[in-house]
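Example record

The entry below shows one chain as it appears in the dataset: sequence first, then structure tokens.
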Amino acid sequence: MRIGSKEVGEGQPVYIAAEVGCNHSGSLAKAMHQMSLAAKAGADAVKLQVRTPEVCVPADQQAEMRDTPWGEMSYLDYRRKLEFDVDDYRLIADHAREISVDWFASVWDIPSLDRIMPLAPAAIKISSPSVTDLDLIDAVAASGIPVVLSTGMSTPKEIVAALSRLPAASVVCHCTSIYPLPAEKVNLRCIPKLAKSLHKDAVVGYSGHEEGLAISIAAVALGAKYLERHFTDDRTQWGSDQAFSMQPENLEALVRTVRNVESALGDGKKKVYPEEKAKMKSLRRV
């Protein structure tokens, strides 16, 4: 399948998405700055999150008061502060083209999908909480835009039901929805099992919330062809996702290591390399 400017799947480089999410804290300038840093670090795409707060915030939580960078306010008003309007997303799309990086978003509701559809995002992400939102899944499938599905907090039955409504050529990510994610609950052996269960045109991926590089590298070694990690310019900033997000130097190291691992995986056919033949003469006695 294709996402934006890249082919994704077997025989192709791992597609690496930097999940800016809401780490921009509602600042368009900060979002664009983070996009530029992610592109410079080697990410193939930058992903944001799009919600309609009046739809996504449960009614019983809307009036709850929260401490925020803008002072104490209701949870509904706080969620509104984090959202961009259509004109903002038009500027985001323009900026992505300028810095040669794909952009797309997780959409949490149908009005959010409608908001960004005219801007031709490279893909649409269905996040783990939305796996059971079949109306949203149907709307995303009908859009004709490539789909990335995360499978955190979901049972095999729920995943199968979601996939039955999506195009066969979709990215399906193993994911555990714990933030940050401890190693003992990652369960990376799900990746090859998930890959075997998917349609031949589907792509298996990994969406991680852990700290460090090792687990994501192992996911690639186990077959993930799409890799997504949270990204920020400064982990010490205010925000629920900042602490387990990658900073530019971490993302750059991840991209570099993934490319090395891809090269090291090879084609799986055992062979004797020319450089080994000289060693045969000096080291083999029989």
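Notes for this example: The longest helix spans residues 248-265. The two ends are 50 Å apart (CA to CA).
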